[in-house]
Request: fold
Amino acid sequence: MAEVVSIIGLNRIGLVKPHDDVSQLIIDAARADQIEFMNHDVIVVSQKIVSKADGRLVDISTIRPSNRAKSIAKRTNKDARVIELILRDSKEIIRADRVALVVRTRNGFVCLNAGLDKSNVQGQTVYARLPNNPDKSAAIIKAKIEKSTGKEVAVIIADTYSRPNRVGQVEYTIGLAGLEPIIDYRGQADIFGYCLHYKYVALADEIAAAAELVMGQGNEQIPAAIIRGLTRMQPTNSPGLSKKLLLGKKRDIFYSIT
Amino acid sequence: MAEVVSIIGLNRIGLVKPHDDVSQLIIDAARADQIEFMNHDVIVVSQKIVSKADGRLVDISTIRPSNRAKSIAKRTNKDARVIELILRDSKEIIRADRVALVVRTRNGFVCLNAGLDKSNVQGQTVYARLPNNPDKSAAIIKAKIEKSTGKEVAVIIADTYSRPNRVGQVEYTIGLAGLEPIIDYRGQADIFGYCLHYKYVALADEIAAAAELVMGQGNEQIPAAIIRGLTRMQPTNSPGLSKKLLLGKKRDIFYSIT
Reply:
């Protein structure tokens, strides 16, 4: 029998407003399509709707930029108020020029503009910041869905990621609850009994990428998906799981690329 | 109605030997599980079985390392014959020390050890090199499956990729035929009519990552999967599609990271 994993798009969530309850929207959207949750379903939710629900929309017309933000705004040719918001969510600036503003966020992600994003946000001057604590947001959504459905699920919050070395963006995991983000094959035998030394798979990032095959990026309005039938996932109740996906400079073998 | 994409693992392919016909093995494995191919199925095949079928297994006991290989072997503390094979498949060495050997392959991929790999290869001294021309290998598999089944499919050859910035590996695309690897949303409107400036999605890499949710990495022996129900794919007959995923240094916004 073939092993099958299904990616089920939830397209009845509709527009999410500040302080909406994302878990309830997901439960209702599944019900509207007669989808029953099952144990070990992984629910992937787009960062954008979590940011909205978490009250992370900011109108930049309310922002007074610092002198540092003004200086970086000049260097990068961006709006100083936008830079101010990016700085508030960053702990390190990695590149700042007219080509790109690459930072390490307070949560440790190396990404463009600290994830600050204008797309699919209403209002000319309104931007969405990343959730303040994406693992916690994921844990809250997980707990509410479990309480309502009686099923044990996992939740991944996915965002769009521009990568080194490769053209185009992929979805990746910024927060998760309920599953180990990494599968460690090291020390296991391959099909010829050879010990695997390097296989250490970023399962959570692969799930986030898979979800986008139904979620899309434009006006599709499919901001969540259920990944069903994943036999390889390892449930866990540990908090702060996204930290396991963060590679500091010292351990990063690509860091000597210049 | 929910949009559903299915990832179907083909677990009856068995062991692949040098010069086996991968397309026939895939057709037979699908038939054994009573899976009929459908138009627009994307078939993801692991690099390892394509390398085997393409005759890219090499016994390093037959290799005489060059002086350059010997010198790099010393710096990296690796077998000079292994280095020799890596050099033959590389056009640029990016990092070579005891931590890692990162190269740009002749086909343009930035990766560890030019993709040379020992896992799931029989024989203590036998290694698998990447396919010589992965796009061409994908095109051949595609053509044979289409001829045999009468369906229009796409083929992606996926390999394991250690990434900058993030812990763990993900599958990515080293060769493909039959679908555009990138979806370009730039210039399209979002749900509020805001023009998307940056969305440029590496669909092929997301499909490769999704396939691993059933394929695994150890001794699961599921070296191929069918991705079915993908509404966003754009068929094409262009050759050399993997080039569209390659980001040279000049365009790589992360390249100033040091």
The first helix of chain A runs from residue 22 to 32.
